[in-house]
Amino acid sequence: MRIVLLGPPGAGKGTQARRLSESTGMKHLSTGDILRAEVAAKSELGLLAKSFMDKGDLVPDSNIIAMIQQYIDDPSGVLLDGFPRTVVQAESLDKSLKEAGLPIDKVVHMSVDTDELIRRLSQRVMCTDCQTPYNLDHSAPAKAGVCDKCGGEVIARDDDKQEAVMNRMKVYQELTAPVLDYYKSHGDVAEIKAIGTPDSVFEKLSQAIGTSVSAN
Q1: Is 2 annotated in the active site?
Q2: Is residue 214 situated within a structural domain?
Protein backbone atom coordinates (compact mmCIF):
# COMPACT_ATOMS: atom_id res chain seq x y z
CA MET A 1 0.00 0.00 0.00
CA ARG A 2 1.19 3.49 -0.86
CA ILE A 3 -0.34 6.48 0.93
CA VAL A 4 0.30 10.15 0.22
CA LEU A 5 -0.18 12.60 3.10
CA LEU A 6 -0.76 16.16 1.88
CA GLY A 7 -0.94 19.30 3.96
CA PRO A 8 0.90 22.54 4.72
CA PRO A 9 4.01 22.81 6.92
CA GLY A 10 2.97 22.23 10.54
CA ALA A 11 -0.13 20.16 9.76
CA GLY A 12 1.33 17.19 11.63
CA LYS A 13 2.07 14.93 8.68
CA GLY A 14 5.34 13.69 10.16
CA THR A 15 3.88 12.93 13.58
CA GLN A 16 0.94 11.03 12.14
CA ALA A 17 3.02 9.21 9.53
CA ARG A 18 5.32 7.91 12.26
CA ARG A 19 2.31 6.62 14.20
CA LEU A 20 0.87 4.97 11.10
CA SER A 21 4.23 3.40 10.38
CA GLU A 22 4.34 1.91 13.89
CA SER A 23 0.81 0.55 13.67
CA THR A 24 1.01 -0.87 10.13
CA GLY A 25 4.68 -1.68 9.55
CA MET A 26 4.73 0.58 6.52
CA LYS A 27 7.89 2.55 5.76
CA HIS A 28 7.62 6.23 6.71
CA LEU A 29 9.30 8.08 3.87
CA SER A 30 9.85 11.70 4.86
CA THR A 31 11.74 13.74 2.29
CA GLY A 32 12.33 16.39 4.95
CA ASP A 33 13.99 13.93 7.33
CA ILE A 34 16.11 12.42 4.57
CA LEU A 35 17.22 15.85 3.36
CA ARG A 36 18.07 17.03 6.89
CA ALA A 37 20.15 13.86 7.38
CA GLU A 38 22.00 14.72 4.18
CA VAL A 39 22.56 18.26 5.46
CA ALA A 40 23.92 16.93 8.76
CA ALA A 41 26.26 14.60 6.84
CA LYS A 42 27.36 17.54 4.64
CA SER A 43 26.89 15.42 1.55
CA GLU A 44 26.75 16.96 -1.92
CA LEU A 45 22.95 16.78 -1.87
CA GLY A 46 22.88 18.12 1.68
CA LEU A 47 24.96 21.18 0.87
CA LEU A 48 22.77 21.92 -2.14
CA ALA A 49 19.57 21.36 -0.17
CA LYS A 50 20.62 23.55 2.76
CA SER A 51 20.88 26.64 0.58
CA PHE A 52 17.21 26.19 -0.36
CA MET A 53 15.86 24.88 2.96
CA ASP A 54 17.29 27.71 5.08
CA LYS A 55 15.22 30.17 3.04
CA GLY A 56 12.09 28.01 3.16
CA ASP A 57 12.37 27.26 -0.58
CA LEU A 58 11.88 23.85 -2.17
CA VAL A 59 14.81 21.64 -3.16
CA PRO A 60 14.89 21.12 -6.98
CA ASP A 61 12.59 18.39 -8.31
CA SER A 62 15.35 16.40 -9.98
CA ASN A 63 17.13 15.78 -6.68
CA ILE A 64 13.97 14.86 -4.76
CA ILE A 65 12.60 12.52 -7.44
CA ALA A 66 15.90 10.61 -7.72
CA MET A 67 15.92 10.16 -3.95
CA ILE A 68 12.30 9.00 -3.74
CA GLN A 69 12.74 6.40 -6.46
CA GLN A 70 15.23 4.55 -4.26
CA TYR A 71 12.51 3.73 -1.73
CA ILE A 72 9.14 3.69 -3.45
CA ASP A 73 9.04 -0.06 -4.06
CA ASP A 74 9.50 -1.05 -0.40
CA PRO A 75 7.50 -4.32 0.00
CA SER A 76 6.10 -3.31 3.39
CA GLY A 77 4.31 -0.32 1.88
CA VAL A 78 5.18 3.38 1.92
CA LEU A 79 3.82 6.48 3.64
CA LEU A 80 4.85 9.50 1.57
CA ASP A 81 5.25 12.51 3.85
CA GLY A 82 6.35 15.78 2.24
CA PHE A 83 6.22 14.47 -1.31
CA PRO A 84 5.03 15.29 -3.89
CA ARG A 85 5.25 19.05 -3.34
CA THR A 86 4.71 20.17 -6.92
CA VAL A 87 2.54 19.00 -9.80
CA VAL A 88 5.71 18.07 -11.71
CA GLN A 89 6.70 15.80 -8.82
CA ALA A 90 3.20 14.29 -8.69
CA GLU A 91 3.30 13.54 -12.40
CA SER A 92 6.79 12.03 -12.14
CA LEU A 93 5.72 9.92 -9.17
CA ASP A 94 2.67 8.63 -11.04
CA LYS A 95 4.85 7.74 -14.02
CA SER A 96 7.36 5.85 -11.86
CA LEU A 97 4.63 4.00 -9.98
CA LYS A 98 2.80 3.08 -13.18
CA GLU A 99 5.97 1.63 -14.66
CA ALA A 100 6.53 -0.39 -11.47
CA GLY A 101 2.90 -1.47 -11.17
CA LEU A 102 2.64 0.23 -7.76
CA PRO A 103 -0.24 2.74 -7.77
CA ILE A 104 -1.08 5.23 -5.03
CA ASP A 105 -3.77 3.62 -2.87
CA LYS A 106 -4.89 6.65 -0.87
CA VAL A 107 -4.36 10.41 -0.77
CA VAL A 108 -5.19 12.20 2.49
CA HIS A 109 -5.26 15.97 2.87
CA MET A 110 -4.63 17.27 6.40
CA SER A 111 -5.94 20.86 6.63
CA VAL A 112 -5.19 23.45 9.36
CA ASP A 113 -5.89 27.20 9.53
CA THR A 114 -2.89 29.43 8.75
CA ASP A 115 -2.77 31.15 12.17
CA GLU A 116 -2.65 27.78 13.90
CA LEU A 117 0.07 26.57 11.53
CA ILE A 118 2.28 29.57 12.32
CA ARG A 119 1.77 29.03 16.06
CA ARG A 120 2.68 25.35 15.76
CA LEU A 121 5.80 25.97 13.71
CA SER A 122 7.05 28.54 16.21
CA GLN A 123 7.01 25.78 18.87
CA ARG A 124 9.07 23.25 16.89
CA VAL A 125 12.69 22.58 17.83
CA MET A 126 15.19 19.87 16.87
CA CYS A 127 18.40 18.28 18.15
CA THR A 128 21.36 19.48 16.09
CA ASP A 129 23.14 16.12 16.55
CA CYS A 130 20.61 13.28 16.17
CA GLN A 131 17.81 15.28 14.47
CA THR A 132 15.19 14.25 17.07
CA PRO A 133 12.21 16.64 16.77
CA TYR A 134 10.49 18.22 19.78
CA ASN A 135 7.53 20.53 20.31
CA LEU A 136 7.60 23.08 23.10
CA ASP A 137 3.81 22.77 23.45
CA HIS A 138 3.48 19.05 24.16
CA SER A 139 6.77 17.21 23.80
CA ALA A 140 9.55 19.49 25.02
CA PRO A 141 12.89 17.96 26.11
CA ALA A 142 13.12 17.25 29.85
CA LYS A 143 15.92 19.81 30.16
CA ALA A 144 15.47 22.97 28.13
CA GLY A 145 17.77 23.06 25.12
CA VAL A 146 19.17 19.56 25.68
CA CYS A 147 18.19 16.43 23.73
CA ASP A 148 16.74 13.62 25.83
CA LYS A 149 18.27 10.98 23.55
CA CYS A 150 21.84 12.11 22.94
CA GLY A 151 22.42 15.26 25.00
CA GLY A 152 22.86 17.39 21.90
CA GLU A 153 21.77 21.00 21.59
CA VAL A 154 18.07 21.53 20.84
CA ILE A 155 17.26 24.65 18.83
CA ALA A 156 14.70 26.00 16.38
CA ARG A 157 15.29 24.92 12.80
CA ASP A 158 16.30 27.71 10.43
CA ASP A 159 13.28 26.94 8.26
CA ASP A 160 10.93 27.30 11.27
CA LYS A 161 12.04 30.86 12.03
CA GLN A 162 9.40 33.52 11.33
CA GLU A 163 10.74 34.87 8.03
CA ALA A 164 11.27 31.39 6.61
CA VAL A 165 7.86 30.23 7.91
CA MET A 166 6.07 33.01 6.06
CA ASN A 167 7.97 32.14 2.88
CA ARG A 168 7.15 28.42 3.32
CA MET A 169 3.45 29.30 3.50
CA LYS A 170 3.76 31.37 0.33
CA VAL A 171 5.62 28.57 -1.45
CA TYR A 172 3.01 26.05 -0.30
CA GLN A 173 0.13 28.08 -1.69
CA GLU A 174 1.89 28.74 -4.99
CA LEU A 175 3.37 25.31 -5.69
CA THR A 176 2.05 22.61 -3.38
CA ALA A 177 -1.63 23.47 -3.03
CA PRO A 178 -2.15 22.75 -6.79
CA VAL A 179 -1.01 19.18 -6.08
CA LEU A 180 -4.25 18.73 -4.13
CA ASP A 181 -6.22 19.77 -7.22
CA TYR A 182 -4.12 17.38 -9.32
CA TYR A 183 -5.04 14.41 -7.14
CA LYS A 184 -8.68 15.47 -6.90
CA SER A 185 -8.83 15.48 -10.69
CA HIS A 186 -7.49 11.91 -10.74
CA GLY A 187 -9.66 10.44 -8.01
CA ASP A 188 -10.98 10.86 -4.48
CA VAL A 189 -8.98 12.67 -1.82
CA ALA A 190 -9.84 12.05 1.84
CA GLU A 191 -10.09 15.36 3.74
CA ILE A 192 -9.48 15.61 7.49
CA LYS A 193 -9.28 18.64 9.79
CA ALA A 194 -5.95 18.15 11.55
CA ILE A 195 -6.84 19.95 14.78
CA GLY A 196 -7.16 18.61 18.30
CA THR A 197 -4.85 16.25 20.15
CA PRO A 198 -2.43 13.99 18.25
CA ASP A 199 -4.61 11.05 19.33
CA SER A 200 -7.79 12.58 17.92
CA VAL A 201 -6.07 13.45 14.63
CA PHE A 202 -4.71 9.91 14.39
CA GLU A 203 -8.23 8.56 14.84
CA LYS A 204 -9.49 10.77 12.01
CA LEU A 205 -6.60 9.71 9.81
CA SER A 206 -7.12 6.01 10.53
CA GLN A 207 -10.80 6.33 9.63
CA ALA A 208 -9.93 8.18 6.41
CA ILE A 209 -7.56 5.41 5.36
CA GLY A 210 -9.78 2.60 6.62
CA THR A 211 -9.88 0.72 9.89
CA SER A 212 -8.48 -2.40 8.26
CA VAL A 213 -5.30 -0.70 7.04
CA SER A 214 -2.84 -3.17 5.58
CA ALA A 215 0.81 -2.67 4.81
CA ASN A 216 0.59 -5.00 1.79
Answers
A1: no
A2: no
For position 100, which CATH number holds? Answer: 3.40.50.300
User: Who contacts 46 (Cβ-Cβ below 8 Å, separation ≥6)?
Assistant: 35, 37, 38, 39, 40
**119 part of the active site:** no
Tens of pLDDT, residue by residue over 49-85, are: 888 878 878 788 777 777 777 778 888 889 998 789 8
Catalytic: which of 27, 85, 120, 204? 85
| Alpha carbon distance 192, 200 (integer Å) | 11
Q: Which of 13, 19, 36, 50 is catalytic?
A: 13
Q: Would you call 18 a catalytic residue per the annotation?
A: no
What residues make up the domain containing 168? 2-209
Q: Which of 19, 106, 157, 204 is catalytic?
A: 157
Q: Is 168 a catalytic residue?
A: yes
How many domains would you assign to the chain? 1
Task: Report cis status (omega within 30 of 0) of the bond before 84.
Answer: yes
- The 10s digit of each residue's pLDDT in 178-208 is 999 999 998 879 999 999 888 999 999 999 9
